[in-house]
Amino acid sequence: MSKLILLVTIIILSSCSSIPNKESTKYLEFTDGISQLTNSLMSNLQRFKLFEDTSYIVLNPFLDVDNGQILQASLDIEKLIIAETQENFKRIKIARINPEKLTNAKYILNGIIKYEANKSAQKKHYKISASIIDLTNSTIVVNHTVYIQSLGLNYQPTPSYQDNPMYFKGKPLQDIISSVNSPVGSKIDTNYYDFVKIKALLTVAQSVYDEGKYKQAYALFKNILEQPGGKIIETYGGLYAVTFKLGRLKEAEANFAEMIAIAMQQGALPIKFLFKTNLTDFLDIHELKQQYN
Length: 293
Description:
alpha/beta, Rossmann fold, Serine Threonine Protein Phosphatase 5, Tetratricopeptide repeat, 2 domains, seven-stranded mixed β-sheet, disordered C terminus
C-alpha cells in the first residue's frame, strides 16, 4: 500500500512539473496600454526618488523597430505620454526632444514599436517598449513593455521618412533598440550624449520638413552636417528629400550617393522596394516615378 501511495505521489509531482508556469500575455487597447506604459515609467522614477523638481525628460519619438521610421502612431504615442504625465505627474517636466530642452534635461525617454504578425485575423497586435536613461551617466534607470491590440495603428510614416529612398536600419536604430531592451542599471554607449545632441537637431529638422517648410529644413539639415557626428545616413536622407522638393536634383543625387556609401560601410543597403514583382516597371506611386524615371 505504501509503495502504491509513493508511486501515485511521484506521478502527481511529475505531471505538475510538466505544466509550464507561464502567464499569458495580456493585450490592452491602445489608449489603456500607453497609459499603463506611462504610469509604470513615471511611478518608478518617483518611487526610486530619481526625479527632482529641476529635472527634465526629453522624449525621443518612438521608432518602428523593423525599419527605423517615425510613424503617425509614434506621434499618437507621444501625445498620450505627454498628456498622461502632465495630468498625473505634476512634478515631472516632459517635452519632445529639441536642442533647447535637451540643455536642461537629465533624462531621455526612448521607445520602439514592434508589430507582431500572425496573432489574429480580427485584430492586430503590437509590442511597445520604452526606457528612461539618465543622461548624466548613460544608465538605464527604468523600463517597461506593454502589449497592444488594435484594429490597426497608423503605420503611415511621417513625411520626412515617407519621402526617403531608404529605411534607417543602422547604428542609431540599433542603439535605440539596445537602450530599450537592456536591463535597468545597464550602461549604454559612452558617446551616447553626443548622439542625442544630433538626434535633437534631426528631430527639429524633420518636424520642419513635415510642415512643408523646405527651405528652413534645408538649412537645418545642412547645419547638422557641420556638427561632430552629424554625417550620418539620416542627415543625408533628410537632405536628399528636401533638395528633391526644392528641385535641386544634382544635389539630391549627391546626397543619395552619400547614403549609399554609408549604407555599404554598415554592410546593408536598405533601399525601399521600388518595382513591381518580376517587372522593371516602377510601382504606381507618383512620387517614386517622379524621382526615379
